[in-house]
Amino acid sequence: MKWPRRTDPDPATAVQATGPGSGAATIASGDGAIAINTQRAPFLGVASTGANATIVQVPQAELRPPAEVDAPPGLVGLPARHVAFAGRTRELRLLDAALDDTSVAVVQALHGLGGVGKSTLAAHWARTRAGTDNPIWWIAADSKAGLDAGLAALAAALQPALAQLPAGQLTERAVQWLATHTGWLLILDNVDNIGDIAPLLARAATGRVLITSRRSSGWHDIATPIPLNVLAPQDSLKLLTHTLTQGGTRTFGLDGAAELCDELGHLPLAVEQAGAYIAESGITVRAYLRLLADHPADMYLEAGEGHDSERTIARIWRITLDRIADTPLAGQILRTLAWYAPADIPRALLDPLSTPVAVQRATRRLAAYSMITTSGDGLAVHRLVQAVARTADPQDPHRQDDDITAALHCATALLRSAFPALEPATWPVWRSLLPHIDALTGRTPPDADTPDAAVVLNGAGLFLNSQGQSGRATAYLERALDAQVRILGADHHKALASRNNLAGAYESAGDLGRAIPLYEQTLNDSAKVLGEDHRDTLICRNNLASAYYKADLDQAIRLFERTLNDMARVLGDDNVDTLVCRNNLAGAYASAGDLGRAIPLYEQNLNSAVRTLGEDHAETIAFRYNLASTHREAGNLSPAIQLFEQSLNDMERLWGEDNSNTIVCRDVLAITHYAADNLGLAIRLFQRNLESRRRLCGDDHPDTLASRNNLAGAYESAGALDLADSLYERTLRDAMRTVGEEHPLTRTVAANLRSIRHPRDVGGP
Asked: What is the pLDDT of residues 173-194, one digit of tens each?
């Protein structure tokens, strides 16, 4: 008989077993598979197959449900104690208050910048819970694999006999144990992906969980966030001192220690990193400061001997930026923000970088990882993050030299594009930009200034000069002029404009010895390069006449008259430059005592300004104020009061009650009412001015004291002698304390007080 050829039922080998009473075949398939028929009896043996098969024998009693397993007493799994711990009193109290209630499940999330000490604080606080919570277990939860491994380790610690079970089974047993017990404390350290821990939190909802993370967002529906900021200065110094003196076991010079803490922005990891380096190398604190200034890239990477070289500020932040590298704009923005002041960076500065959605996405991701903080319309970056971000490191893809240079140019261009017109209504914008201009220009050498930088320097100088800060203005404008001459040449029209602006700053500072020659040089060069009738040349001549106004009034009048004729001919009778020149000529006439020519010229100018610029233009308001002042000087109090009142109303409406020009106008109006015997109106205006001065300058500022003296004088004239006496006495006491006995203000107030107390003894110093 011919038997048919046998074939397997599966591509892998299969074994079919039969026997008496089996009732059916037992089949095993697959490489190395076996089949066992126990004839319906319990299987009592051990079966193992496969090249990597492992046999685990577990006592039957240990395989009870996790709910029936009690934790061993005092089960604590925490990292090594961090001896150098300082401060954090407020945060420790917050954690105590939040996690002390054993009757409810609580989840807290400590979040903050890498290196701010989240893990150190969490471990320190967790140790205080020994004897209260059990177990206390620490898990490095920066990844799903790390979380699972930490849970498996917990299950093994709860039941050491099960330690050889597969990791997946241990992880599941740990979750089941947490879900069926109370009184435990779990610390999930350095969580990056909230989705990794969400399933655990959903199941294990009967104990307390403390999370640390660089992420500042995403906690609203699973945890109560606790933001962690840098150390207070005294705690930062305490931490550095502890590190340098090795806990007080050695002496170490602390000269410059507070300065170093400030330089490091009171970031705990940076302070410890610096302290360990100093202590081990045997250098002084000031020597380290010099190294940090000269070799920042190297110092940000240096870890002390025995310390984890991966736990340096530069490496920690590189890891953070790696995680958001899929948003390249985020890195660009961080490098750009690194050139500004650390706080109050206007969000609007970043608008030109991309679409609103893209910029918002990038800043949101930086904020989510605590690399920046957001508040309303402002952004902030830790100063050490800035320092690292603008320090090149060829080994760090986020700190390449070309990218950092591009970020500097970008930061400069963004400032330039944000400049508004220079007028009182925009002064708040200028004030918000000035700290960032200061920071950027302070971090770059003058010989690296670009054309954009020259414009930024020039704009800052003009604004500062308009605010009466001629010293700072001069420094900016000198640097702007050097940049324009170096880049464009001395005869370029932008260089001529910069020289004119610098001369204006010298003039404002009262340095006519430098202002007039510089104006004359600029006028001659402008006439040669641009021509006599060019607008810039005419403005230069007007400015030179303004400088002569303070040195040679006759020469000033001649220059103003010539310039006004040329401006009216070339630019037009109602051109704003023509209006300014006509206003200046009227002022020169008034100073020369020729009010008969000054007042009509002011009136003509005001009418032209109203017609061409509008009632609310800053120049219109200034022209009206000047006309009012000239009427007052001429003794025409009624038209002066009317014009001053309109000017004051416009200033308050457009610039605010506490604007410096508003206060001056209100003061002059009060004095004019005083001269017109309108004492009630004068007193009310002086009172309002005193309130404004106190808000703006404080109680002890000389301007506030002067306002108080004026109010006392009005009380005196109104016959309220007790009020006047009390106010004079208080003002004199404060003036002697703040500006000194010989200050002109002190002497004036003292004379006023003597006159009210001894009416016949008037005069004095």
From this structure: 999 999 999 989 999 998 988 8
